[in-house]
Amino acid sequence: MPDLPLAEVAYQELRQRLLGGQYLPGQLLSESELASGLGMSRTPVRAAVMQLEKEGFLETLVKRGILVKGIDVKELYDMFDLLNALYLFVLERMEQDQYEPDFERLRYYLDQLIEASERKMHREYYESGLMFMRTLLSTIGNRSIMETFDRYKDKVLYVVVAYRSTEGSNRPYTGKKLYAEIYRHLTEGNYVEAKAAVQASKRNSREELLRNGYKV
Fold it and tell me: Tens digits of per-residue pLDDT, 179-195?
């Protein structure tokens, strides 16, 4: 990114490291270490950290360092509830108004997700799943829905990648079954079953969060 200001370069790089699970919730970073790792002075790094603080990823602790923040539990539940409501709304509109999704794009992200699961690539797996659902949402051409989804998708990605990186799971990569089911139901024009799959996924996600101590 040679044409970007250094502060933007630092911001983009640090953000990608957060989304990729290289920095995990609870970890303390130092401005000097970040600057050294990025090969730049502390000034652009400080500006990048301030932006990431506004987005809720980092928090500067006086005389202690820069804390990588977790996501508030209630915010986590609210994000999942909101996104699932968007999915169901769009599926309802698709059924009523005969919208046809971009099957080629959906298939692309489904294949990417399956490949990532086979290679045990956490970020790529969850990112492909989110892009699959983003493609679904784009079907009805509602800009407000897309802006809402984009506002939260990176927070969701951050949470699930960090969780898998620290806690793991005895049921990793099971989401690919859900996306395959949704894709199949859509190709068959079976919106009732597609909505049922999304609702079942919401229940399963909430149950898994509860099993692992995420209580409101």
Answer: 999 999 999 999 999 99
Prediction pTM value = 0.84
Contact 102, 139 (CB under 8 A): yes
Contacts of 166 (CB under 8 A, 6+ apart): 24, 25
Cβ-based neighbours of 198, under 8 Å, separated by 6 or more: 84, 87, 88, 91, 182
136: which residues sit within 8 A by CB, 6+ positions away? 87, 90, 91, 101, 106, 182, 186
- Distance between CA 20 and CA 130 in Å, rounded? 14
Closest CA to 85 of 208, 202, 187: 202
The tokens describing 16, both together, are 């990608």
